[in-house]
């Protein structure tokens, strides 16, 4: 004890919050669990209830790193009755809703200690709109250093309405009324009649949608560095995560004998209509859209003509090789960093060097698409599925919009000089063989999640389990055996990059190398130390750094947390701390019965030149899109296939690359657990 006191005396108050024991991980997990549990009801945790009743957020400003400025702003809005009421839909793309959610986020980010953060969260949960509250909590847990080891419960169990069909939610209510435990079958929104959607409806997966939400939480367009720090390569990450969604969707389409998706065009009708079969918890059904709708101007958002003008300004910048800043000066984009600037411009985020001139192509397009059912606000409809990251992929227009944007990015990447032999060569290193252990085979498996948080209830009546199950794609585990010869005469750090792309389109026409590589799906990236001579590297599919595991269910999280708290044991949820990768079950595209052929490329590049941080070969957790600190790989995303390939023979001459063909099978297997 004495040494602690001495330490405090010496270090002064700055250390107080660190030395006075920070809450345990189990305690933090408990708090976040209960702050998000039954978020549309009153708080259930006794301590939290007490905070909500008696805490005065402005009483002691020493607990805030901004001297209470953020909390003063939010409390004033609350006292003036200016905040969105509870039991109302929330949309991030609604400027006022977002502003309110971010006021709470700002408060939480400036809390110096865990207790103050929890007190504020409990206090505002009882007083703010539920959607705004959930958004602020998720964003703060991801970005606040004090919450580093907290696992966020699966979003599809916190706000099930956004992920679950209306019919299933209605059945859940009926089960609640009967007080009988129930398992309800969920099906996808793609109807049997619509062959476009039917084939690939499984891609609109609860995990894919959660990945999409989390990515936009890690790298939000509204981010200001004053919240915490600069987000490294945010614009380039925006390009890459959506490029990967787009090329993966195309690979799934080809697996199902469909053509790659066509890009959206502002002056052509939106061919695919859809009925989302989803409802807001508060605010009625999500709007549908009939087939072949012409784009209309959306009141208060944008005119179609504005979109066309912004598009041509961006393409002009690409043709000229520079972006014009607000002060009229130029940013050269004819280099590896150009894609980062362009991503900020196209999204656009607050990092855009000139949003005044280049607009916000991506964000405005989402709202434009979402409002086509009611462009003039005549029917007072709630926002469309495109206006929420949770539901956006339910609209087939989502992938067409992103194909359109991906083509703009390609225009830029294709304007850069091709890589030369010297750019690609890793002298003295050659990949002599690549073999796959196990078959590349996918199947469907029923996945269960809870609808407890979908139904209203009271504390007096005990919960009965109400679950839904939905078929989800998965694959049999496999590994890569990569044989590498190092003739450098000394140990060498290497980056191993694994990509695959469909060998032919759905009519069996082979892709050129240049078109193939633009459709490359990133399967893995990791670092190894190569000893002199020949070594075989074995890498498991489950270790892929581009993917994450399914998060345990809300109930499992709660049980593990309470067990750790009561038994004083350690809570080990380390595997689930980041949810920003693709679900591992989606690592492989579905393939088909005959075996869909893919080109498999394994590229071994110079790790010493690539690495942005030290000791990557010892780190299993290279998190693909982590927003903390520096992105580990200095190379552009998609390297070495991100640039136009003038002459593919160069890829055959470079010894540190290996090109082979593999087949992915799908035999219609479906595992039921009931």
From TrEMBL:
Residue ranges of domain Tyrosinase copper-binding in the record: 395-406
This protein's record includes keyword Glycosyltransferase: no
Family of this protein: Belongs to the tyrosinase family. Hemocyanin subfamily.
Alphabetical UniProt keywords: Signal
Lineage of source species: Eukaryota, Metazoa, Ecdysozoa, Arthropoda, Crustacea
Biological source species: Macrobrachium rosenbergii (Giant fresh water prawn)
Name listed for the protein in its UniProt record: Hemocyanin isoform 2
One matching Pfam family: Hemocyanin_N
Alphabetized InterPro entries for the sequence: Di-copper_centre_dom_sf, Hemocyanin/hexamerin, Hemocyanin/hexamerin_mid_dom, Hemocyanin_C, Hemocyanin_C_sf, Hemocyanin_N, Hemocyanin_N_sf, Ig_E-set
Signal peptide: 1-21
GO molecular function: oxidoreductase activity
